[in-house]
């Protein structure tokens, strides 16, 4: 199906054959439709808002959960998209209410929006539970907002549709097509190497990001939007529509119309977020050559759905899924090209029933098979067939070894192939600030064969596991033409980044993982083909170092940071709060 097309749906979409709810069975009826004092008060306050009784009584109340803010350029257009969703809700006979929630701006929020992903998920869950809401449309897109919104919505388990913010337009500079932030990293290194100057950098500032929307490479935002579409919780083709394209407004209005029908048929989010759906989302991420961050987010999302998903599942699926999307940073093209080539429906159709579970429902169709009917390829260079894939196996590899007992990941498709198997001496940095201040010092003796090691940057140590994993190559090596080195950390890296960067090493150094025990000069071996990451010292020496290690003290004495450090899990289990992901009943609020 074309991403620009109005979804064609059978008369009996998901849940349509089920018994339809009566207005008295709507969740919002408990707030508005009873005879008590509280319902009288709720109706009176709704009149205060300026609404007539016939505008909302007996109609599904739809929460439009909006992560727009003035500080988030990826979501700059979501105020207008909320209006399009409202239009669709009104047309379908629902009652839309917009709820502002926290914005997680990858560009500006420090130390990292990952520190606050679970906070937004908690806010989303409790908002949907505590207000007279029958269904929800979630508006997000910047990296952490997609998993946060869906994690919270999965816990609340109401009928839900996700509207991704969409990628920005492609960048331009002096006749070159730019992709943020992939070309940000590239040209910053060009500046450090002395090959461009301040004038070029000033021009690049104005050409990298030309419109509202998320990064237009296959970074974390587009990866997670695609994962959401593969899960079946967006309108068809939604993931790749450029943010400023008129098709994006039409998609938002379509989501508004569709959510009303999902409410009447009580098609809750859990109907779609199944084990098969999560496996298909992993398959999709790998076929896209998508962001390593999707590993953490999908494991956390699956945990909220009480679906087992682990690093082993990613590695198992990666061994059978080819990379079909020729999109940066692993490929050549940008999301706008991917959209014009047919978008995610085309890629999913390419994968077909050999790789996907096509008979599961989506929010728009009885089955994914029905949703993909008619999907056409308009550019076979951008979205390839398996016999012409970028790689025979998915773009991620999961590593284990004495340096990563609980696992680590590498996006090997974007690394120099000569480094897929490499042994070199470690140069260790205890924190990111120290690394920044000293990386260019010749006294460190860094060569192209060195293995740069950053610790203290994991879920607790970061704090929040910042995107520090693409450690900079020293200036003097850049000037010698070195473009990639093996780099290890317990941090994450931007989905727009590239290079031989081993990430998410677990357990992290802050809790005594083996990364805490590495010393300068230790030999480290990376071998992608055998999925191993090894510190070349014997167990006796490793035990001696472990016995001498002193754990660092807590970073936070109070506030959200203290809550975070008390409950955050490690990277291999999704960095969720344990109390949010565990099973247990949460009672519906009494509205009377």
How would you write the strand order of the largest sheet? 7-8-12-11-10-9-13-14
How many strands?
Answer: 14
Low-confidence stretches: 1-12
Helix content: 25-40%
* Mean pLDDT over the full residue set: 95
Q: Quick one: overall form?
A: globular
Structural class category? alpha/beta
The span between the termini is 46 Å
Largest sheet: number of strands, sense, barrel closure: 8 strands, mixed
User: What is the tally of helical segments?
Assistant: 21
Alpha-carbon Rg, integer: 24 Å
Strand content: 5-15%
List the topology elements.
Blueprint: H1 29-32, H2 37-48, H3 53-56, E1 61-66, H4 78-91, E2 95-100, H5 117-130, E3 135-140, H6 145-156, E4 160-164, E5 171-173, E6 176-178, H7 182-192, H8 198-207, H9 220-231, H10 246-264, H11 275-288, H12 293-304, H13 311-318, H14 335-340, H15 343-355, H16 368-372, E7 397-401, E8 404-410, E9 421-429, H17 432-438, E10 451-454, H18 475-479, E11 486-489, E12 501-503, E13 523-527, E14 532-535, H19 539-548, H20 559-567, H21 578-581
Parallel strand pairs: 1-2, 1-3, 3-4, 9-10, 10-11, 11-12
Antiparallel strand pairs: 5-6, 7-8, 8-12, 9-13, 13-14
Helix pairs in contact: 4-10, 5-6, 6-12, 9-11, 9-12, 11-12, 11-13, 11-15
